[in-house]
């Protein structure tokens, strides 16, 4: 592909390489459609070389003391802090989220790398008493081996670092495949670890399609764990392929996240939360607020407040700090969102937006108006993940109906309740079928020191972030040390 943009290669065995004659693809700025950079369309042979490098580097990295691995992560966090402004700008240019969120994406990466660096001096096991005399019982953590990290485009530095930092601190080696349309952001991530001194072969990077690179990774028998974040159908395919080889496959998938707005809520506070939750990142978060379930006593009042506020909501250049919402991430995203909007127009009442934005800057990029539908529960737009700036508003009679509606979807990632009633708040913690529940805050805004993940079709039970992030990348070994100098038999009676 002829191109005037910078060209990047693969990172294998500690070296940047561009295989001779390799096909290439470009990433583009979704606000302008201008090409940003060119990347290698990796092949199965490229994956094989990357896995071979990771496999060869594993014994020495496993033997590196965990605190020393933590030192390298801490160096990576410091380097990324120095590069935050530049990398945040790349996030905004390549993914389209507004600059404040682009910088926030990088800050989340920094926070989590620092957090995982500290795990190098913990990596807790357990010691427990034995039923026998002069016998010591404990558990230790050991790395899985070579792991595959397959990441999406919506958090193009944060999610890769969630996986990479946790895998590295626990002693694994990695082959990292990013989403193709944010490959430049992923390249910046790899360059940070390279500068921090990660040894050759410990972190490898292969760009290309999921069908080629992703499939080759999942099917390589030397890969022992696959960590995947993306859509449900792709995740199901990864899970099935991995299961055939009895691999550990960790999935973080979709969401259809509700805000439950009760009649006693602080409405101005809820207004700001719903705006950010539904239209932050143009609705392209797995935790985005896609359903607003409103008590009938405040339904009309709040919907009026919301539409009036949207009339003053700025959509435009994501590099402008005054902009509230930028473009959606790609032509494919725009097409899918607009198709769902047309579905919504047939089954629900369009209250606001519902169009592709045109004229001026809008003609140069992928801009969709913030959109609100009033709908009954059970429509497609109220139950299927759209992954765009489309909010379904549903009227309910009381708290119990709100919970029933909230839970009646196939996803269970994030949820939110706005109320001044402390009893309701604690009921919601039990009642809402979700991995995350916010009280008087939007459905977005997870913090790195707490687990992240969901139930039902949102994943297969694991969690990322928090102290449990290391569970995904470690095996638990149980150890018995008998210092009695005689044969002792657990569970068998003896004199």
Task: Describe the model.
- It is built from 14 helices and 21 strands.
- It has 495 residues and is of the alpha/beta class.
- It folds into two domains: 264 residues, Aldehyde Dehydrogenase, Chain A, domain 1 (3-Layer(aba) Sandwich); 183 residues, 3-Layer(aba) Sandwich (Aldehyde Dehydrogenase, Chain A, domain 2).
- Strands 14-15-16-13-12-18-19 form a seven-stranded mixed beta sheet, sandwiched between helices.
- β7, α5 and β8 form a beta-alpha-beta unit.
- α1 crosses α7.
- The longest helix has 21 residues.
- It is globular.
What distinguishing features does this structure have?
495 residues, alpha/beta, Aldehyde Dehydrogenase, Chain A, domain 1, Aldehyde Dehydrogenase, Chain A, domain 2, 2 domains, seven-stranded mixed sheet, five-stranded parallel sheet, 14 helices, 21 strands, globular
Summarize, please.
This protein has helices at residues 44-63, 66-82, 84-95, 99-119, 158-169, 183-196, 210-219, 232-243, 267-279, 299-310, 331-347, 380-383, 399-407, 422-431; strands at 10-12, 15-17, 24-28, 35-40, 127-128, 135-143, 146-150, 173-177, 203-205, 223-229, 248-252, 257-261, 289-295, 349-352, 371-374, 390-396, 411-412, 414-418, 436-439, 455-456, 474-482.
């Amino acid at each position: 592909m002829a191109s005037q943009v910078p060209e990047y290669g693969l990172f294998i065995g500690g070296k940047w390489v561009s295989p001779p004659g390799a096909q290439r693809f470009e990433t583009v700025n979704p606000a302008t459609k201008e090409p940003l950079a060119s990347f290698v369309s990796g092949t199965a042979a490229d994956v094989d070389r990357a896995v071979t490098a990771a496999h060869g580097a594993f014994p020495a990295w496993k033997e590196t003391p965990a605190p020393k691995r933590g030192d390298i992560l801490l160096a990576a966090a410091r380097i990324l802090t120095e590069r935050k402004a530049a990398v945040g700008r790349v996030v905004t240019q390549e993914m389209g989220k507004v600059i404040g969120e682009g910088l926030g994406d990088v800050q989340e990466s920094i926070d989590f790398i620092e957090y995982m660096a500290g795990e190098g001096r913990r990596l807790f096991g357990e010691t427990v008493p034995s039923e026998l005399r002069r016998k010591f019982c404990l558990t230790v953590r050991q790395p899985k081996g070579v792991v595959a990290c397959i990441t999406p485009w919506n958090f193009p530095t944060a999610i890769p670092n969630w996986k990479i930092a946790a895998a590295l601190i626990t002693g694994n080696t990695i082959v990292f495949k990013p989403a193709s349309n944010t490959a430049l952001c992923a390249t910046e991530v790899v360059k940070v670890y390279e500068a921090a001194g990660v040894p050759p072969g410990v972190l490898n990077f292969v760009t290309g399609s999921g069908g080629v690179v992703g499939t080759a990774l999942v099917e390589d028998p030397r890969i022992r764990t696959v960590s995947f974040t993306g859509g449900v159908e792709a995740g199901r395919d990864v899970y099935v392929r991995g299961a055939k080889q009895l691999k550990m496959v960790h999935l973080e998938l979709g969401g259809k996240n509700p805000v439950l707005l009760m009649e006693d809520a602080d409405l101005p506070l809820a207004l700001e939360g719903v705006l950010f939750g539904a239209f932050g990142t143009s609705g392209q978060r797995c935790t985005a607020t896609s359903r607003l379930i409103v008590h009938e006593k405040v339904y009309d009042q709040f919907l009026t407040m919301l539409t009036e506020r949207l009339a003053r909501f700025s959509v435009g250049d994501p590099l402008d700090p005054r902009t509230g919402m930028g473009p959606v991430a790609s032509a494919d995203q725009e097409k899918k969102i607009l198709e769902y909007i047309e579905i919504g127009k047939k089954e629900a009442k369009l209250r606001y937006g519902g169009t592709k934005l045109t004229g001026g800057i809008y003609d140069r990029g992928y801009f969709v108006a913030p959109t609100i539908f009033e709908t009954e529960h059970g429509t497609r737009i109220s139950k299927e993940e759209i992954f765009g700036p489309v909010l379904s508003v549903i009227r309910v009679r009381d708290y119990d109906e709100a919970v029933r509606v909230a839970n009646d979807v196939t996803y269970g990632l994030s949820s939110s309740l706005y109320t001044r009633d402390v009893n309701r708040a604690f009921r919601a913690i039990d009642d809402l079928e979700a991995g995350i529940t916010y009280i008087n805050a939007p459905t977005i805004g997870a913090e790195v020191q707490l687990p992240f993940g969901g139930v039902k079709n949102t994943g297969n039970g694991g969690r990322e972030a928090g102290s449990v992030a290391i569970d995904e990348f470690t095996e638990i070994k149980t150890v018995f040390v008998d210092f009695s100098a005689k044969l002792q038999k657990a569970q068998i009676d003896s004199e």
